[in-house]
């Protein structure tokens, strides 16, 4: 292993530490490698909080001339235009669809994944088998991720049981190809409840998205939200559910009061509506209606009925006139 290889390895081993990046930038610049300049410029930008006009122009020129080569370890696996760079390394991106299973084999365990902070496995037309996703997540250096999207809900209990823990603050579990019956929902929720109760793998998780296909719509199916420490730490919960779901949730959340940390409950289908907690309780609804839908007038009527039933006066929903 060369000196440069060792310096790259040090960055991947401690991706939150700027020290190894400064050392690498100096060594690359000494070797007349232009990436050293990029790392230096972006480290300076990170410290200052913004980049000067000259720095932005120089970074743009460097990426135009050398960007594809710098992305080489992840080439063919991430969508190039989705990649965002900070401090000289990729920090976010969407996975592309590999041409063969070998494409996944090449990326599983790749050290270049260590600097990512945001990863979405659902975008980019990716169709990933469960076992492949499991290997990617648990055999790759991804523990420093802050946001993970598109992860199968079947893997959420394992994420909760992982040691050492993840740095994840946000996790999104999409639908799973069809609804589960009541027996399956009960089994899935029992497993998830046990994982929330006994697992310590997601100590920083505050934002969670779950699909009703797997987890059901009844607030009682999510008892872990108020019965476990990990659940009580959540600040935002998103679910794929119709607006009428606010009615039972509003009653349960009002009863719980300060026993949970939740401040926002979002229900989404085509529209996205958020029940927000204020100083006076769960008294505000925000969000947007899908005004492009041919069913938007019906959605407005349904929202109106829910607002009237809950007695909520503070409404700021795009595409909806509160007093209309």
Structure description:
With 324 residues, the chain is of the alpha/beta class. 41% of the residues lie in helices and 16% in strands. Among the domains are: 1-69, no CATH class; 263-324, no CATH class. It has an eleven-stranded mixed sheet with strand order 1-2-3-4-5-6-7-8-9-10-11. The model has no long low-confidence stretch (mean pLDDT 89).
Give me a quick take on this structure.
This protein has 324 residues and is of the alpha/beta class. Among the domains are: 1-69, no CATH class; 263-324, no CATH class. It is built from 13 helices and eleven strands.
User: What is the H/E order?
Assistant: HHHHEEHEHEHEHEHHHEHEEEHE
List the uncertain runs. none
Biggest beta-sheet profile: 11 strands, mixed
Strand order in the largest sheet = 1-2-3-4-5-6-7-8-9-10-11
Q: What portion of residues belong to β-strands?
A: 15-25%
The share of residues in helices is: 40-55%
Structural class: alpha/beta
* C-alpha geometry: globular
Rg, rounded, reads 23 Å
**How many beta-strand segments?**
11
End-to-end separation: 70 Å
Mean pLDDT across every amino acid position: 89
Count of alpha and pi helical runs: 13
List keywords for this structure.
324 residues, alpha/beta, 41% helix
Topology record:
Blueprint: H1 3-13, H2 19-30, H3 35-48, H4 53-70, E1 84-86, E2 89-94, H5 101-107, E3 118-120, H6 130-138, E4 147-149, H7 156-161, E5 170-172, H8 182-198, E6 207-210, H9 212-215, H10 224-227, H11 229-232, E7 236-240, H12 246-256, E8 264-268, E9 272-278, E10 281-288, H13 296-310, E11 314-318
Parallel strand pairs: 2-3, 3-4, 4-5, 5-6, 6-7, 7-8, 10-11
Antiparallel strand pairs: 1-2, 8-9, 9-10
Helix pairs in contact: 1-2, 2-3, 3-4
